[in-house]
Batch of 4 targets.
Target 1
Amino acid sequence: MAKQAEGRRGLGKGWIALALGAAAVWAARDIPLQIGSRKIGDRAEGERGARYRRSPQFKDGKFRNTVPATEVALASMPRLLAASLTDRDRRHPASPIPVVIPETGGDGLYVTWYGHSSALIEIEGRRVLLDPVWSDRCSPSRLQGPKRLHEPPVPLRSLPPVDAVVISHDHYDHLDMESIRNLVDLQAAPFLVPLGIGAHLERWGVPATRIIELDWDERATVAGIEFVATAARHFSGRGFSRDETLWASWVIAGPTRKAFYSGDTGYFPGFAEIGEEHGPFDVTLVQIGAYGDQWPDIHMVPEDGVATHVDVRGGLMIPVHWATFNLALHDWAEPADRAWREAKARDVKLAVPRPGERVDVDNPPAVDGWWQQL
């Protein structure tokens, strides 16, 4: 018994040391980054960097939110790391997540959710791919970091031809080097990205002619679809340095139909302004997962996600940013449960597809609570 107690004390000290080590890494986040990993990407220089510095969103060497957002406090890091090592079962589904083989075809408005925030919007005969992440982990490492909880519903090489690839920001669960490099060869579409991300893409072999970088409220038209980079309340960074690239939500407007993608964001008054200027929208894809009390300003809780849908004057809401990667301390099914409950309370039309399921926006399937059966 004494040996067991001593072993437990040693294990406890080990977790404390690990937590303190993680805190030390976090404290070093502002150390200038010496880019040694290609996955991290690159920094903007020359005219590209000068353009960023002219942005109204750029101040004192960083991109800024219109409404300031608090960061995770250094003092809370050991406690967060310790919490992540407990109650792991409830943060994973007990059964395999059902995956559907996607369909294609038709000239209406369709959304295929591939998992997390990766999705395909088919809008009036055009196809727009959002935040494609097909790698096994959303991490700079192939051995460490959040691992997929389900397989991609379809290989990247089996995607239909797309007209545009849209990126919301440069975090690893939204901007995946391997997926981008494969798409360069598999597709001919341009990449629409917020300011700063073009440097990452060029380092990974994307031709400059296929990169369209936009500041908030800037527009570009591709294949008859208008794209507007709109505000979000988040942050960026793939290494120790932060906020050297911009983050965005997106308006995707065809000749007669419109979609809105929130990207990652905290709730803020800007969504009502987006709804006033660009709405109404036939469909919204809104972040509902990976929230926590320690970072309330940069990820929305599900109720805020529903409020965002209402603010932008959305028709059908499709929740994203949940189910695929374990990125927070809440139960795996909690985001969908809370979003469904709030949608019913606010009379919001909701669709919660399985990964790979294609939603006809004009005839969406009834919510069946499939995640509650796992």
Target 2
Amino acid sequence: MADVTGSTGTLVLAGTPIGDVADAPPRLAAELETADVVAAEDTRRLRRLTQALGIHTTGRVVSYFEGNESARTPELVEALAGGARVLLVTDAGMPSVSDPGYRLVAAAVERDIKVTAVPGPSAVLTALALSALPVDRFCFEGFLPRKAGERLGKLREVADERRTMVFFEAPHRLDDTLAAMAEVFGADRRAAVCRELTKTYEEVKRGSLGDLAVWAAEGVRGEITVVVEGATDSGNEGLDAAELVRRVQVREEAGERRKEAIAAVAADAGLPKREVFDAVVAAKNAARTGQAEGKGLA
């Protein structure tokens, strides 16, 4: 119930089942029944969830999705400031993970409002565990750009990433994405396509990116999570100066400052930062010299 003493309320981020409703966290039902406000990505799915759990919400239910997230966040923050307990749920998994939630969390923290969570199912962690790929270090890349050129650019940015990578993808774009990954990462790079996790037709297809791209070309349905092996150290053996410069340029184009880009490339290649720095400076000087000579011949 809302606090009438004047203190602020609490924002609760609640994980919801990604497939099997039996995976719902035990605390989820209690939070749904007692929250003053339930902000749901899809109120119809929320209704189906509460029916499956055999419970009823007693608080106000509002929609909170990508289209109204910016506009509704101030309203929810005011409710929290007034002492309400606001529960945020998305269609599946944890809020904020490729789903609405980040804006509300940031706004609540800015107002010094308590934020807590009801941990629950996660497609990211479930896919990692089932992939049979290294999970000691990993990164989550979410959805790749829809346009082919932008998708290739994003993949090139993470081509040297050593950690296992996790992506979400729509089924109708999976074949193109796997083909692009095979092109950028190499057709032999290991990966796993996890489909319909925890649902009736759950499937985990493991293999090389090349083989998976051929398999996906026949058509794949359902919710998709792709896990890709990170780059191996062997890929850094014998790197020449031109390749080091190229990797720095890729990171700079992605928004990194040159100093950070040089440090990252050096760390990935297992080289001293000075060696990468010298290669970048030499390339820059060579470019200037070429430009000057070109002007002299004009």
Target 3
Amino acid sequence: MKKVLTIAGSDSSGGAGIQADIKTMSALGVYGMSVITAITAQNTLGVHAVQEIDLDIVEKQLDVIFNDIEVDSIKIGMLASGDIAQLIKNKLVTYKCKNIVIDPVISSTSEFRLFKDTALTKLKDLIGIADLVTPNIPEAEILTSLKIENENDIITVAKKIKELGVKNVLIKGGHRTDNSCTDTLLLENGEIIEFLGEKISTKHTHGTGCTLSSAIASFLAKGSSMEESVKLGKDYITLAIKNSFPLGKGIGPLGHLVELYEKASIKY
């Protein structure tokens, strides 16, 4: 059994954050563990409030995991503050962690700010020790202060993020404004790898970033290469989006556990 640790915030509605990460890891056959950095009051209509977890509790969660259990890969999501980002970087270096995937959660889909601008420097420092960072277009623009309008811009921004020290950069193109069919671009060891995505007509996409990064971390834990992990992660999230469903009054969650749902005779 491979063990994957998610370091992220909690989503009270279950569609993103820690909850989405654990569902994804379970679906992909790895053992999911968690370090919670923040609690959000959140539903399908958006994020309504955030409460950071005290630093000493975040630190204790990390220590008890690493002192007891071998961790095969790590997914990092919402961190809430620069102090938490700094703490996590120090701990991951101390414990010589491997297969670190960072989803730089800066704002929610509803544009609720989840990370303070004044803390970006510490987030960038943390990104510098990662094996992969997976920003979407708005996040990539914030990290580099550059505007993305076409594919050449994406390549430029990916190379700029690579300068932070991270080994590989994955730019998610779901927020593209041009008509290109390339929806994801991976900069791996200086090589540009493009992934063509399938356009799925649904508004129920809550937690896609969390899910993709968790899926990639799961496949890395199981021994897949970076490129193969990204490909398999994209295959999984495509299936999950195809099986997303309405919940509440807003943007519904993905079908993370579609095989279990079908076994339970739930019909889409």
Target 4
Amino acid sequence: MVWPFKSKFRKQIARIEITGAIASATRKRVLEALKTVEERKFPALLLRIDSPGGTVGDSQEIYSALKRLREKIKIVASFGNISASGGVYIGMGAEHIVANPGTITGSIGVILRGNNIERLLEKIGVSFQVVKSGPYKDILSFDRELTEPEQNILQQLIDTSYQQFVQAVAEGRSLAEETVKSFADGRIFTGQQALELGVVDRLGTEEDARRWTAELVGLDPEKTLTYTLEEHKPLLSRLLPGSAQVSSGLRAGIDWMEFEMSTSGQPLWLYRP
């Protein structure tokens, strides 16, 4: 049976916000939200990004989902205070990008960090006995230096991930790969500079991006509402809004610590100031 009334969502713009470090929780939330956008038949999506980036795989899955959705609806990305590294990569899934003049963006590149506490362990008399199936099974072990062959292996891994990033930016922005590589050396730049480099389309606020999104699908910018697909908040946060504000800073700190611990030794598309 065909429902005789048009969905109310056809005259609204969907809005999804991506904030903080991108990891598995972000991926799950955003992919669910994108599915809802498609099911409710929104004509367009405003993607607000305020993130320094994050894990490679999670960023790639969000980017791929955005590219698929872009075949059906218009998608405009709005870069906030910071949209760097993996935040830029996700933005490439949008058809158009708007940034503030002072937005911190760029940091196109890959980083992998490990910890070496070998000298500390020697001072306190701690050592490890390792039995492994191959010479590289304990690569990036924290109790010893990397060997030269290990450094070469990891550099090849980083170079492959970097090339994937460059290709995505080149495709998303219709730029030559060599042009992208000229500024994809890990440097950060402002939204103004990003416009000059061709990384973004326009300078403006999120409201400017919203109005442009409405115009792209033939809706009146003055009357069109946005429907934000938010993460479900805990019951306590909904009942006591004040307590949510107090705990938000603590929660952010805990989340960042968990991210640092869980991604140690992983290649990251992440801006680390």
